[in-house]
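S1.2 Input.
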Amino acid sequence: MRIIVCIKQVPDPQASSSGTKVDPEAMRVIVPQGTPPVMSPYDENALEAAIRIKDAHGARVTVISAGRNLAKPVLRKSLASGADELVLLEDAAFEKLDSYATAHLLVAAIREIGEYDLILCGRQAADTDAGQVGSGIAEILKIPCITAASKVELSDGKVLVERVVSDGFEVIEAPMPALVTASSEIGDLRYPKLKDLQAAQKMPITVRGAQALGIDAAGLKRVNLVRLAEPPRRKTECRIIGGETPEEAGANLALKVKEAKLL
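S1.3 Output.
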């Protein structure tokens, strides 16, 4: 059993966004200095799903991440958590790629790896929220794709997925090889033990650039960004509705709401 997990390095979504700015000239988002990079949370869910399958059935888990100036100590967390191999696609040409180019880049690495039974991705990235790369990989490879998985299991050469829908979940079965995108309902990535973190720092990492992969990722881009700006801010007005007693304050609030025709 061979599982490939695609993960993305993003600025920590839990960090304060108060200093985040948009540079309209360079058309890029400026993240406050000191914001740490992390694995995108949905990708952590995908990795946890892969490790659970490894625990249950035995598997070799390969993690792939692409970008520029990747934080190796951060991505080594995947090895400490239970992955067997980490492949980094690192090149200056891999910066600011759209979903189409990113999918082709990851497919180039997947084809270089060779055989695989299951590919797992996060349902969307924590920075762009596009949710297109996983489906794009499946389309290029011509394999089944199941999105927004809350549970992933294997049986008789097939993948069984509980998929999140608006009014509950549905169960979908697909032959392998297949691709599944993971949702947060799968659960958080297990916290690695100290000895595993230490061991992961000594494990080798495979690094591949654009020339080694033989791909012009930037030339594959299909999205032409013409403008990037902060959303307009509306002026807001705050009123404090008081009263001699809580009951009176409540009655006064009800009158104001009625005057504003909100009731």
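S1.4 Remarks. The mean pLDDT is 91.
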